[in-house]
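Input chain follows. Return structure tokens only.
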Amino acid sequence: MMKNLITFSVLLLFLCTSCENDDFDLKNPNVEQFVRQIKNGSYNKFEFSGNGERLWTEMPQFKVEHIPILINFSNDTSLISPFDHIPLNPVSSIPPYRMSNGKACIMVGEYLLWCIEGIIEGTAFASLTPILLNQTYTEDERLNGKEIIEVSKLYQNWWEESGKFGNMNKLPLDDTVYKWR
């Protein structure tokens, strides 16, 4: 009897966790769930053509109230590869990745900062691609993890000084060497 109860409990737990992908709400997104899913490769919200062909990954409809939570996660310098499950601007032809050990990757924190920038600007996508640039570098140089954390601090400061008060006129990267590509 106890063995059956344990087996049933494990099976129930498995079923509940395997259904997580299906219950993500694009209109009222859970940031923690989104970050977990993009990191583990299980985010699966796609736009489809009329004949059912998968076109691109849909961006959750993040709102201003999601910014502080996204900022908290933006210190994550881990790399995601492959990244075909991550929402990217479907009109962009610019590769959104960095190379690491011969693999194309996207840095989690940089990507989440891009999501925040889109919220601030009132668009689904802040730019064509989630690539932060230092204007003093060449166009192909990418920011390293330490620099992404510095930019995350700029967003945190912006939030504390302006964003949480509804002041979206001044952008976090104004008067800095950083810009979105």
